[in-house]
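Minutes, project check-in
Item: structure for the 297-residue chain
Input as provided by the requester:
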Amino acid sequence: MKTPTAFHPASILCPVDFSELSDLALKYAAAGARVFDATLVVFHAARFELPAYFTSAQADALKRQRQDQQKQVKVFLRLHARKLLGQEAGRIHLRFGTADAHPVDATLAAARKSKAGLIVIGTHGRGGASRLWLGSVAENVVRQAEVPVFVVRQKQHDFINPSDPQSAPGLTNILCPVNFSEASRSALWHAASLARQFKARLITPCIIEPGDKLGIAEARRELAAWLDETATGECDAHIITKSGQAAERIVTLAEKMQADLVVMGAQRRSSLQTWFSGDTTESVLRHAPAPVLVVPH
């Protein structure tokens, strides 16, 4: 596989639901559009289901009303985004889209249609039963997306100034855990590219869990070789090797190292597998103290 010279998306997709959290995601997306000189596609989707007991005439009338509402939604989407971003909206290339479809399916389809190189989305990241509903759209997008997904969560450290959309991103510390899978190799390439572009420190922890074949010393040597392959000579790279439970250690390191961004690799799997797997990437998504960029293999 050829190593990418730089992560530079030409198009960024940001699905919004007009919540406070999606407003924050939109501000991050706008900052990304400015940094990468990319087109920002602001997108809203909501699925409308006709009641089964409606007559054909009632269904037709309701469908016409729904079509009118969709036009109003697109107008509101434009006004909302421009008001939220202020003068920044005039400095970036904005496009807008809506869909009467399930948000997950619609977002994935919109990403393909717009040839997005990055999806920016918010998630509540809550635990328990509420998370299954509130975080389901973002988590399902992460599982199925073919491009990197930047996930913004509640109560996290932000590397932009949300009150000033025109301010420059302050990306100083990037944490990219490596477990020597192909997914983490792809994540490391993206993290190294961002570290070079933002002149940030790249922190690469490898967590040795019980049952792992590699020891601390072997993992450190292997990680050093991976860093050489990703041409990290132009950025300040640091290797950390520890033993323990991976997700817990990564979240703790992100807090301790004051990470502005966590970059994780993820394998694409079915929803059924993922709901019950409790894998490291999903756990970090729910608990990381900073935004997470999930890179698919």
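Outcome recorded: Confidence is low (pLDDT under 50) at residues 125-134, 270-278.
No further action items on this chain.
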